[in-house]
Amino acid sequence: MIGLNEKYVRETYDGQGLLTGLDIQYDENYNFGFDVIDELAAKCPDKRAMLWTNDVGEELSFTFADMKRYSDKTANMLRSLGVKKGDMVMLILKRHYQFWFTVLACHKLGAVAVPATNLLTVKDLVYRFDAASIKAVVCTSDGELSDHVKEAAAQCPSVELLLLAHGRREEREAGIEKEGWLSFDKLMEEATADFQRQDVKAVDPMLMYFTSGTTGYPKMVIHNALYSLGHIVTAKHWQNVDPEGLHFTLSDTGWGKAAWGKLYGQWLMESCIFVYDYNKFTPTDLLPLFAKYKITSFCAPPTMFRFFIKEDLAKYDLSSLKYAAIAGEALNPEVFNVFYRCTGIKLMEGFGQTETTCLIANLTGMEPRPGSMGKPTPQYDVEIVDEDGVPVPPGVTGEIVVRTDKRPQVGLFMGYYRAPELTEAAWHDGLYHTGDTAWKDEDGYYWYVGRTDDVIKSSGYRIGPFEIESVLMEHPSVLECAVTGAPDPVRGQIVKATIVLAKGYTPSEELKKELQTYVKKQTAPYKYPRAVEFVEDLPKTISGKIRRAAIRTEDWKEKA
Question: If you ran DSSP here, which 8-state letter would residue 331 be given?
């Protein structure tokens, strides 16, 4: 029987079985809710689509027939409350299973789903509600977030509808209600499961994310329905999900990474997704889940793997795990090497943005090179160019761009919502500029350097922070670090390392000199950090990425 993903993609391979080309085909009325979920409900209604559990031991299993039924009921409920095609619906649902009901319902209605993190403050929410003209909010009942949402909504005239969803069984069964909120669970259950196909198109807006930029207000990245098809490569060729297996991506549903690993590509591959709904990341709580649920493939950012390798992995049964992918930030080779020694599994790094699907990756069949992002996927025309947009030769650092003047790039965003000037600044002359820099070796493997504004220019040298961070991460005293350019009257800038120490280490001049000497021995001496600062925590974006820009700003402010 043909797999659903094969209905949309024609692939070509070389003699070694490596993917070399693909052609994504679709109907003008393509819609993920109708053409994937409903199709699977008809094709394999009893096949498990999602295994959900939480940190208090609750477990729920949903088939593809269940997903159709609950998304139809949710769509009918939202429509009865006035949600229609084109409306903006914000979903702040952590890892609650109601997220999947609602995002699919939005797709079927033609409404635009706007996932968001539960870490937002009232100020964050007001900005987002106003910037996107949010009409409805479906929110978790956990913590004080619903109070913040209600306070923000009172200041934003576009918000007309507030729906509260309970993540825990006792709250749902108790029928707990909150003033000013409608009960998502009660109204959804009361709604009919008969929902007819709507007039939605493949090019209609489907999904929007607020980016967690390191500077300025978050931009609104909007995708059409074809974005889901762009994730076939993500799931099949990068994460290597097994249609008969269980795939686990760690991300909260508020981040774009959830779309990469907990939704589109995995279900196009007819695989089951595993969801662990928790409040605090604790490696010792998470690691036993692999054996308990027989998880076969896994994807998480390097930060999580750094915590994993600090544990005694020999104490945990990871034998069910066959494949592991990694993305979200550059992968330090030390993390790759330690995890491989402990598990025999090579971490397959991938690179992309909220604006894209997987641009560059170590795809199945490739031999990964520790620290390399891999090679461009055949889905996109990716190049490295200089400041004039001219491709650079191997070994030369430039900006990663996507060429869009030759063929459609399925999976690339439509633009920045309500910000044509930002779209034009990033996407012009037939190139989408990612703002990330890299170089490629003679074999075509890409090596990450940093954001365009992260590159350090010192005494005529151009120095990428990631290479130095990777060396520092090899030292046992370093838990996390950020390398930036600090002002210097002679060199213009010097390399500075801001370091969070591992347990058992304390700041000292001796340790500082030891780290500087270590870097000198491991890489070119001019790259060593002339300034070292030990801190308790690094500044990070709301999505957890290190904010080098914040460190730079403070250093240059002090100079001024």
Answer: P
